[in-house]
Design goal:
The complex is a heterodimer. By secondary structure, chain A is mainly beta. In chain A, 4% of the residues lie in helices and 33% in strands. Chain A has one domain: SH3 type barrels. Classes of the chains: A mainly beta, B mainly alpha. Strand 4 of chain A pairs parallel with strand 3 of chain B, so a sheet runs across the interface.
Chain lengths: 92, 357
């Protein structure tokens, strides 16, 4: 397993719409949505909660308007595993 | 510095009996449908224990072998009867911890197994929760019956595990005693220290668990801790939309509403409306509201703002201003006058106790 993380803070990312073999802990309300990497946690161990070690984990910041019908400057930050994230191009 | 906040119906003083009963009802259904029954079903599927074991064990169980027993209420007044139900719920929750994988290692269950089994990822597997109707007396009577029924199944399940050789009576008795050795809630002392000691605050926000280790706060083995700071510019709120993840090992159990589907869906759909409706909390328009969804191995709590007029207070006094709600973002820390008023009215809520890991 590589220790390298694919993304870094500030990267623009999009959450995959579907990922059948992926970690199920990716909530539906962020699928297909665009955000920015706020933190990179690396690989975390939590042997009480699950077996094995998952892909690197990131906290991704979404504008509230991206994930709900609300306007304004509020944000939602969600922890997402690397396998669910796609890099967005600079002009996306 | 924080401003005033309004009355929070979810914190329930003892004069609001219906709020207390509602909290017990909701929590009881959560623990049954999300923590206990999925575990039983998981093991039934694997033949660890069968339905027939449960029936046979119940038929032959002797009174002196029982793990769970209920004393009577401490009085006939309504406070005593409500407390009785709350304490019974607490025993039920401890009983579930008794049959967790940490006690019965051969069961080899992790939390993720339970999440699948209870329908977190697929509604097909959800277990229906009971609805509650009637006036206060009717609901209290129904609640007592439910507690009795649910505890009975738990008792029978424990005995079946022993009979089938998955656990020894002696080890379970030891663990049962351990589960009653709870620790005090650490939220108050942690926040008071962060308010008083800038270096500790910096370390807490930067390193989470490491700072608490140096402080000597007991912690379990539950992933990474991130503490997020409320400021004049930002108000933070914590949720686990998928289930009810929380830093239990430091802060004990969550309020019932944190685990409830209504909070978990509304807080990410319209956070401002949600906190106003549920907690009477109006966040100023110029502040950013940040919702943190703990979906994985990171657990969060909020460092609330230090209230005005507390500059000369000791850490011990500051700790009393910290509420369970303020560490989730459902409220602010108390103003000193509010805390004094509560103390005078004997209306201070009991803090959650922290169970052994």
């Amino acid at each position: 397993m590589s220790d390298e993380q694919k993304f870094k803070i500030g990267d623009a990312v999009m959450v995959a719409v579907e990922n059948p073999d992926g970690n199920p802990r990716t909530p539906k309300y962020i699928r297909g949505k665009r955000g920015v990497v706020a933190f990179a946690h690396g690989r975390l161990e939590n042997s009480r909660d699950h077996r094995g070690i998952h892909d690197p984990l990131y906290t991704v910041r979404f504008d509230l308007s991206e994930v709900s019908g609300c306007r304004g400057g509020d944000t939602v930050l969600v922890d997402v595993h690397e396998e669910w994230l796609r890099r967005l191009n600079a002009d996306a | 510095m924080s401003g005033k906040h309004g009355h929070k119906p979810f914190e329930g003083h003892m004069h609001d009996y219906m709020a207390h009963i509602q909290a017990v009802e909701e929590d009881l259904e959560y623990y049954r449908a999300k923590r206990f029954e999925p575990r039983v079903i998981y093991l039934l599927r694997r033949g660890v224990v069968t339905f027939y074991d449960l029936l046979k064990v119940r038929a032959t169980l002797k009174k002196q072998e029982r793990f769970f027993s209920r004393a009577k209420p401490q009085g006939k007044n309504i406070e005593a009867r409500v407390r009785y139900l709350e304490e019974w719920l607490d025993e039920y929750v401890k009983g579930i911890a008794l049959v967790s994988a940490r006690t019965v290692e051969a069961l080899d269950m992790v939390t993720e197994d339970n999440r699948k089994e209870r329908g977190d990822y697929d509604d097909f597997f959800k277990i229906k929760k009971k609805e509650h109707h009637g006036n206060l007396e009717e609901r209290m009577a129904a609640l007592q019956q439910d507690l009795s029924d649910y505890t009975e199944l738990l008792e029978v399940f424990v005995q079946a595990l022993i009979q089938r050789g998955w656990a020894s009576r002696k080890e379970l008795a030891q663990r049962w005693q351990q589960l009653h050795e709870e620790r005090p809630w650490a939220g108050g002392v942690i926040v008071a220290k962060a308010w008083s000691d800038p270096e500790f605050k910096r370390a807490l926000l930067a390193t989470g668990r490491e700072a608490l280790r140096e402080m000597g706060v007991h912690q379990g083995k539950v992933g990474k801790l991130v503490v997020v700071e409320n400021t004049d510019a930002v108000h933070n709120v914590i949720v686990c939309t998928l289930c009810s993840c929380y830093p239990y090992d430091i802060l004990g159990d969550t309020p019932w509403w944190y685990k409830h589907e209504s909070y978990r869906t509304k807080i990410v759909q319209n956070p401002r409306a949600c906190v106003k409706e549920m907690f009477h909390l109006e966040i100023p328009a110029e502040k950013e509201l940040r919702v943190w969804d703990s979906t994985s191995d990171v657990r969060y709590f909020v460092l609330p703002q230090r209230p005005a007029g507390t500059e000369s207070m000791s850490e011990e006094a500051l700790a009393k201003l910290v509420t369970v709600d303020s560490l989730i973002g459902a409220g602010y820390a108390l103003e000193p006058a509010e805390q004094r008023a509560r103390e005078a009215a004997h209306a201070e809520p009991e803090m959650p106790r922290v169970r052994p890991d």
